[in-house]
Amino acid sequence: MFESAEIGHRIDKVTYKQQVPALREDLLDAQLDLVQCGKFPVLILIAGVDCAGKGETVNILNEWLDPRYIETHALRDLTDEELERPPMFRFWRAFPATGKIGIFIGSWYSQPLVLNVYDEIDNAEFDQRLDRIVHFENMLCREGSLILKFWLHLSKSAQKKRLKKLESDPKTSWRVTDTDWRNYKHYDRFRRASERMLRTTSTAEAPWIIVEGADPRYRYLTIGKLIHESLRRRLDAAPGPVAAEAFPPMITAVNGLRILQTLDLSQALKKGDYRDQLAKWQGRLNLLSRHPDFKKISVVAVFEGHDGAGKGGSIRRVTQALDARSYRVTPVAAPTDEELAQPYLWRFWRHLPRRGRFAIFDRSWYGRVLVERVEGFCSQADWMRAYGEINDFEEQMVCHRTVVVKFWLSISKDEQLRRFEKRQKIGFKRYKITDEDWRNREKWDDYELAVCDMIDRTSTEIAPWTLVEANDKCFARVKVLETLCDRIEEALEAVENIE
Amino acid sequence: MFESAEIGHRIDKVTYKQQVPALREDLLDAQLDLVQCGKFPVLILIAGVDCAGKGETVNILNEWLDPRYIETHALRDLTDEELERPPMFRFWRAFPATGKIGIFIGSWYSQPLVLNVYDEIDNAEFDQRLDRIVHFENMLCREGSLILKFWLHLSKSAQKKRLKKLESDPKTSWRVTDTDWRNYKHYDRFRRASERMLRTTSTAEAPWIIVEGADPRYRYLTIGKLIHESLRRRLDAAPGPVAAEAFPPMITAVNGLRILQTLDLSQALKKGDYRDQLAKWQGRLNLLSRHPDFKKISVVAVFEGHDGAGKGGSIRRVTQALDARSYRVTPVAAPTDEELAQPYLWRFWRHLPRRGRFAIFDRSWYGRVLVERVEGFCSQADWMRAYGEINDFEEQMVCHRTVVVKFWLSISKDEQLRRFEKRQKIGFKRYKITDEDWRNREKWDDYELAVCDMIDRTSTEIAPWTLVEANDKCFARVKVLETLCDRIEEALEAVENIE
To answer: What is the ipTM of this complex?
Structure first.
């Protein structure tokens, strides 16, 4: 979930200076239209990791927008007045009226998160509170509010660096408190809890937008542009219930840097190394699959990737290591009549493995947010709600001791071309290349955007994506096998004492 | 929530025989259309109190409908196959395809309910599971499914009677198991837990429909008619996302008997008795309001009722007993500009009382499901979602130790006419009667339907409605005072050991 916010997004000074004036003008225009139409209120939540620049961001927004129509709320300790009413009272008091923008640092998310991190409420109660928040935000959305939720993220090392830097400068050292360092010590727990929180409360109407916090210019530009785009969409929307097209946009990195581009696709294995590694990991996988505790778990492996990235080859290297009775490979193509007569996820549920078995999916339920999104096979509302539904689905598997391993096999556009051309030349490989492959290739950018959104929204602590650099097939296959072994080993360790 | 299902609904044999043939024809017609259009699947859940006739109802449905397009699932213990997959697997396997009807006795609700009743999961985990169910059903609804959830209810005495009757007859005694008697012993816990469940999972798209189970003819006719009506609505709906108008209907009693009609409005108090009682309860209320623990709680009293039912007079009898500094009466009329610029509930949140205070609402947030519904001031989607939002709102108050007391002051149509005419004659009361009152009177039946729906959907264990027979003003006032005192006393007892 935080992958895309740890790749070191930056905006250089020159670009920033070039872009800011136009953005400020756009923002003011949009805000003025909002004030004049007075149709809906805007709630902007600025949350995230300590010292990721929440305060500075709010200051910038107040500078860029017309502060007369902005109310900023930094809600900390409850006042007497508030203590005597239900917890949500303070937020109801602080709501912006239609036409206004309310900016919240510290929101209805703050308390449940902290309580969960410090073990004062367990996951069940945490979920209960988060679900109440979802109800609450649903209500606000249906009442017409535009809710923008920004999560400023810092990796552990980036947070440490920033705390040290702020502390070392006498002018900023006051900003680092003991609480900040205490929270830093709990970074991993914070990360896990906030991931759960973001996953549970990211709805199609009010998704979380995760922004890398390390570089201020990147942060300001991203948030500024997203606020502008969201405002415009909503202002331009038809009257009546808000359609999916007017929901806040999924993030697109303002500097054009996407996680897939950060992969080092040049990684490769020499022939000899490959043979050794393959033997090693296939052997390990075979042993694991015959481990006595393996009958207490099951494995679902998902293979997605660019056309021609070598999904089939990788899958074969996995199955070679397994007893044919213990796995089933399900290639996912167009749905059958029977499948069309059921809810979308039905055709995957039916293939869930029994205990002690592998289910390998050659393409998967992610088709909904990839091909169906890009080709318009389903409505925007449908694929937007799919992220949450997929996370639910995978959570159910994981809770039932299924190891969910998801691979994205990534190749460069050039490498794809090379492979396509080669396939056309080799007779027995010709069936593998169709007109559709060439058509998809034309939509390379659209697909890439969809893939990055997919990773941001569905790579979770419990079911993370593994991005596989696949320009070199050997490297890819070994990485797949190794990852699979690691994840199964982890699960076997966790399961040791059960039953 | 169960009030309307405990008033002894019956259908006599003659009426039943008259109505069934036409209903069966309608049902078959609708089912045939469903099969032919094949656009959506229908899931019918038959749940409820033990021995309320779930099995018999399913048999009747199979008799009335064409069983070739029905799949009945009585899901009990998990099979081996199912145990090895996540809990929802069995239901995914059992889904009806589009054009088909799936009837479920025992559903995704069964396990969480039983676990909560027998204390194997606490309320937080119960809520967590229920919220997952809501997500799940939301997904099904958005995928196009029509979900009809029937809850067959029996009062405690009715259940006992039925268990005894079944047991005494050798032909049916096998139907009563030890589990049934064990569950009966936990009737009150079952009732509380199922109320919580029904409240949490009644959504606009898939509301629970509560049916009194005591009389089989009433039960069959109600369920049959509701299935027919729901099918027709959905079949006739425009293509595309399902609009609120095509959601399953709220219940309307097939025998025309509504809870308001069961009130004995002839109840009255003699002048002398009234004076004594008034003094007694006002004194009690005053004492309670000065109880040392009263500063740990607060009171929200809601007065709704027919026009002319005497809300103002009742409120005055309450405030007479209180220190003017401790209460505020909020008359709810048309919203101000400022209120219109906020979400609907905002104008009530702002008047929530501090600890140790009373907030008295002369009309309230229930306007949404009464006048706004009847007069069409808001869309059907808006008032349908309001039930859930109101329950959320009141739950937040109750969790914060606010006593929520809700009164519906009920008078007969004749009594209203008498009062209206009297008011027109008495000079200083003339301002109390407007053209609007006369217009509302013309919509008496629409209002009454809305009131009954309101009571069914928002009278909860934690914030029940008190129906006040108000043809006699004295009787009404004393009942209001007495109820208020009882509820506050309860709260003070509960709060004794806190802080």
So the answer is: 0.80
